[in-house]
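Q: Protein A?
A:
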Amino acid sequence: MRKIAMVALVGAALVPAQASAQYGEAGKTIVDVAVEAGSFETLVTAVKAAGLVETLSGEGPFTVFAPTDAAFAKLPEGTLEALLADREALKAVLTYHVIPGKVMAKDVLAAEQVSPATVQGEALDVRVADGSVKVDGATVVQPDVEASNGVIHVIDTVVLPGS
């Protein structure tokens, strides 16, 4: 099983060149890459509403586990609206998706499991499971999208602190 997971992640690690074409250029900040991608409109709206654009455009480096629009659509009805209406709760959820420093897929592969502290303060459970990288149960669908101030790992589910 470990061999399958390693093969899957090594294959995924070879995709960053395609990711740059899909999600933006490495010379752009995390926010720039998210804006240009077109699949993070909800995330960008939330980052703006929480007042985090300047922070995530800053020097970093940051590792962002970025939920797609489809990931936000999977939240229970009314959850996104409630978060957008409560800036502090929104900020807590968004900063739970951010780790100070740059963590690449190869770092998780080497350790098989890491529990980095998020900017929000709680630790994320990041591990290799079922042939893919999981972040608190969300699956990394595109690893290692590099930006000038860090890296984005695209995830298929919004992860919530304390869950």
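Q: Protein B?
A:
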Amino acid sequence: MLAKLSPFFGRHYVSTGRMIGSTPVADAINRKLEAYFQPIHVEVLNESYMHNVPKGSETHFKVLVVSQKFEKLPLIQCHRLVNEVLSEELKNGVHALSIVAKTPDKWDTTFMTEKSPACRGGFGK
């Protein structure tokens, strides 16, 4: 596995999937993404703190997956694959999942995803 660094989420993470301050759900998401996609880079960010949920919740996530398995697939199919791999988590507590799916040739190590918008309370209030 390549050991690239990317500024995804405004922080640097090692592409081996090791996460700073990881938690049980984030760990499960990371393990499943690693096992299925065999990515050259994967990142999992728990964004639950940005929402109106109890402290320490694991309900809102953003993931970046860079994998050859996305080659020649339309973006919607890439997202469907990620959702399928994480179907158990999505049925059992993960409320929101933001996905960035890239092929190795489309991934730029200087890529920065847009910051997620502030939570508006679930009903846009």
